Automatic annotation (TrEMBL):
Domain Mab-21-like HhH/H2TH-like residue range list: 388-492
Protein name, as recorded: Cyclic GMP-AMP synthase
Compositionally biased intervals (Low complexity): 41-54, 78-87, 97-115
Stated family: Belongs to the mab-21 family.
Positions with biased composition (Pro residues): 116-129
InterPro entries membership: Mab-21-like_nuc_Trfase, Mab-21_HhH/H2TH-like, MAB21L/cGLR
Region feature (Disordered): 1-144
Cross-referenced PANTHER family: CELL FATE DETERMINING PROTEIN MAB21-RELATED, CYCLIC GMP-AMP SYNTHASE
Biased composition (Basic residues): 58-68
Domain Mab-21-like nucleotidyltransferase: 195-372
Length: 505
């Protein structure tokens, strides 16, 4: 019997970069138009041939990906030296020399920005007077983004120490899941997430890892026009397949499969010597199995099972991934030939969950476009020009994290996660596709643009999922208006006062 289909309720991804999907079948290459993205979006057309970012999916030594605020990003690749290394935090770097274009953008972005008074809620008074428009152009370096980034860089050393412990755990789990006669034979690490994207910036005690499992011959059915959640069926009855025990009326039940995955992991962690690991209580509706390493230090690890689907992307993604003008149509086509993933994130039905639903995830694509993020193939490589895209993303994430730290879960700030910031950041990249708009020297202005964009999203209550434009991550179903107003007041205050929150805590 088919499960009941209730009213769809989408949720922002709290763990995996999640999204959800409807029926399979999607345009691979052509997209009619890019999402009339939030405030505004870029138009398709450009054809730059950027590097195709194929994310590695081979079985490699497991490494971890860290998580931001139980959400979906964090950290830094484990010391793997790449061309994408941190820019040297240049002390005494020349003041930003804004290009005419970025200045204009920043100026127009600032125009109309209310000079916020002291924000509501607790908090120290202003540390610096709200700058006037003119002043900002004369002294754009009023706050020190490079010093903030240096602080984050130091944190990453701490992160890689913790990552080594997580790697040991992950390695163990993968070996056991593959060696026994389990339903999860063939499971492998999906090397995506902030840790691999090298943008994990804090929370060295929190990591996310995704375990992918290829599932052949599946068919998706959109859940209640949600665009984001779906039911999974098999094209042919998988007689004898270990997965048939998870079928519920012909539908692969996310909660059943997750329960089994959880049970196996729970058995296995008891066999790990030299490490004290326990499993945390199950959280309803969450796709993650949360483990806690207790010694020698506390580290929490969210393990997320992801089904790998090698069919064409669902129709709901057709207008998504608006990178034509930025990375180019060829890169886009090649990315869309990659598989996509489904995580057992249940759709909400009023106050309860729909137990059989899965949600789309494109975290591997996010990783790919962050890695090869420039129009020039050599952007940020040793011999290339350094841009400030990743720094902007790190600062954005840090801003949200610091505000969440400052205000706790008051006013619904717990509803916001780094995935929101990352999504907004991608939209800003779409709107500003040229490398010349992201000169490293223009970090302050570029960051200011990102912040302004995020504010617009909060105010318009619209943040389109970058892959599924019909999904609004800031809809009222997801986050109430008052929370958005509160966060936008706080961010405005920070923006107008040189981001004092970066120096707190
Ligand atoms: Zn770059």
């Amino acid at each position: 019997m088919a499960p009941p289909r209730g009213k769809a309720t989408r949720r922002a991804s709290e763990t995996a970069s999640g999204v959800s999907a409807p029926g399979v079948k999607g345009g691979a290459t052509a997209e009619p138009s890019e999402p009339a993205a939030v405030p505004k979006a870029a138009r398709p057309g450009a054809r730059r041939c950027g590097p195709a970012g194929a994310s590695g999916s081979g079985r490699k030594k497991p490494q971890v990906r860290a998580r931001a605020a139980r959400a979906e990003d964090q950290a830094e690749g484990p010391a793997a030296p790449t061309a994408d290394a941190e820019p040297p935090a240049v002390p005494g770097h020349p003041l930003p020399r804004a290009t005419a274009r970025s200045r204009a953008t920043a100026r127009s972005a600032r125009a109309g920005r209310p000079q916020s008074g002291p924000p509501e809620g607790p908090g120290p008074g202003p540390r610096a007077p709200a700058p006037h428009l003119g002043q900002r152009e004369e002294a754009p370096g009023a706050w020190k983004p490079r010093a903030v980034l240096e602080k984050l860089r130091l944190k990453r050393q701490e992160i890689s120490v913790a990552a080594a412990m997580v790697n040991t755990l992950v390695d163990h789990l993968l070996r056991r899941l593959n060696s026994r006669e389990s339903e999860f034979k063939g499971v492998d690490l999906l090397r995506s997430g902030s840790y691999y994207e090298r943008v994990k910036i804090s929370a060295p005690n929190e990591f996310d890892v995704m375990f992918k499992l290829e599932v052949p011959r599946i068919q998706l059915e959109e859940y209640c026009n949600s665009s984001a959640h779906c039911f999974v069926k098999f094209k042919r009855n998988p007689k004898g397949s270990p997965l048939d025990q998870f079928l519920e009326g012909g539908i692969l039940s996310a909660s059943k499969m997750l329960s089994r995955f959880r049970k196996i992991i729970n058995e296995e962690i008891k066999n790990i010597e030299d490490t004290d690991v326990i499993m945390q209580k199950k959280k309803r509706g969450s796709p993650a199995v949360t483990l806690l390493i207790r010694k020698p230090r506390e580290i929490s690890v969210d393990v997320i099972l992801a089904l790998e689907c090698r069919s064409s992307w669902p129709a709901s993604t057709q207008r998504g991934l608006p990178i034509n003008n930025w990375l180019g149509g060829k890169v886009k086509s090649s990315l869309k030939r990659q598989p996509f993933y489904l995580v057992p994130k249940l759709a909400k039905e009023g106050s309860r969950f729909q137990e059989e639903t899965w949600r789309l995830s494109f975290s591997h694509i996010e990783k790919a476009i962050l890695k090869n993020h420039g129009q020039s193939k050599t952007c940020c490589e040793i011999d290339g020009v350094k841009c400030c895209r990743k720094e902007c993303l790190k600062l954005m994430k840090y801003l949200l994290e610091q505000l969440k730290k400052k205000f706790g879960d008051q006013r619904g700030l717990d509803k916001f996660c780094s995935y929101h910031v990352k999504t907004a950041f991608f939209h800003v990249c779409t709107q500003n596709p040229h490398d010349s708009q992201w000169h490293y020297e223009d970090l302050e202005l570029c960051f200011d643009n990102c912040v302004t964009y995020f504010l617009q999203c909060l105010k318009t209550e619209r943040l389109e999922n970058y892959f599924i434009p019909d999904v609004n991550l800031f809809s009222r179903d997801e986050i109430n208006k008052l929370s958005k107003e509160f966060l936008s007041k706080q961010i405005e205050y920070q923006q107008n006062n040189g981001f004092p929150v970066f120096d707190e805590f």
